[in-house]
Amino acid sequence: MNITRTWFSAIAAGALLALASLAPVHAADDVTYRGLGGQQGIKNIVATLIPLIKADPRIKESFVDTDMKNLAMRLEEQFCALTGGPCVYEGEDMNDVHRGLKVTNAQFNALAEDLQIAMERNGVPSHVQNKLVAKLAPMQRAIVTK
Ligand code: HEM
Fold first, then answer.
1. How far is the CA of 98 from the centre of ligand 1 (A)?
2. In whole angstroms, what is the distance from residue 94 CA to residue 142 CA?
3. In testing the pocket of ligand 1, which one of 83, 98, 135 has its CB within 8 Å of the most ligand atoms?
4. Ligand 1 proximity of 108 Cβ (cutoff 6 Å)
5. What pTM was estimated for this model as a whole?
6. Which atom of ligand 1 is nearest to the CA of 136?
7. 146 by DSSP, 3-state: which?
8. Which of 58, 61, 143 is the pocket-test mutation for ligand 1 (most atoms within 8 Å of CB)?
9. Which of 2, 26, 41, 143 is the most buried (most CB within 10 A)?
10. Helices 38-55 and 105-121 meet at what angle, rounded to 10?
11. Does 15 map to a domain?
12. Does residue 51 belong to any structural domain of this protein?
């Protein structure tokens, strides 16, 4: 009886420890994804962003030959994956896809600004907006070639 109880306690303690070690990691990991409103929130943000890009005189010229439906799908995947959501980015490498486009720092900032407007219009809190922009900032080196 005592041995059974000891075993039971050991298993229960083990299970609790395993849960405790998993839960905080998961919660901390997808906090930005959830802040964006999850899958549907990201879909809405990108749907707002695409027309802003197409109308922005600072960058619209670059996208005249672009399949914007594909771009939207890839941006959704990328934002989801970057913020800890359950997605895998399956698009092209950032260096490869922007090579030859001669993107400037000003243009990079213009797109980041449009993204912030899109997030604002979808009610994303500014601290969450900043988190996504911070995740994209390291890509500047791959995207800007001019
Ligand atoms: C935060 C900045 C940016 C991010 C995260 C980003 C991300 C992406 C992604 C995910 C794709 C799709 C890749 C694929 O189709 O597999 C893409 C394509 C593209 N990006 Fe960017 N981009 C950024 C900035 C810019 C800027 C500033 C420009 C130009 C002004 C630009 C021009 C393009 C064009 C023209 C394509 C389509 C290329 C093609 O279809 O051949 N991007 N970008």
1. 6
2. 6
3. 98
4. yes
5. 0.85
6. 1
7. coil
8. 143
9. 41
10. 130
11. no
12. yes
pLDDT in tens, 2-51: 555 665 565 555 554 454 555 545 555 899 999 999 999 999 999 999 99
The pair of structure tokens assigned to 61 is: 């010229």
Burial class (CB in 10 A: 0-12, 13-18, 19+), 9: exposed
- Domain range for 114: 30-143
Residue, of 58 and 1, whose pLDDT is higher: 58
Residue with tokens 């070639």: 145
What six digits make up the tokens of 2? 């005592």
Return the residue matching tokens 């594909």.
70
In-domain check, residue 83: yes
Question: Is 25 part of any domain?
Answer: no
Q: Does ligand 1 come within 6 angstroms of the Cβ of 142? A: no
How many independent structural domains does the chain possess?
Answer: 1
Is 78 a pocket residue for ligand 1 (Cβ < 6 Å)?
yes
Calculate ∠ Cα 36-39-43, nearest 5°.
85
CATH number at 60 reads: 1.10.490.10
Index of the ligand 1 atom closest to the CA of residue 62: 35
Q: Is 139 in the pocket of ligand 1 (CB under 6 A)?
A: yes
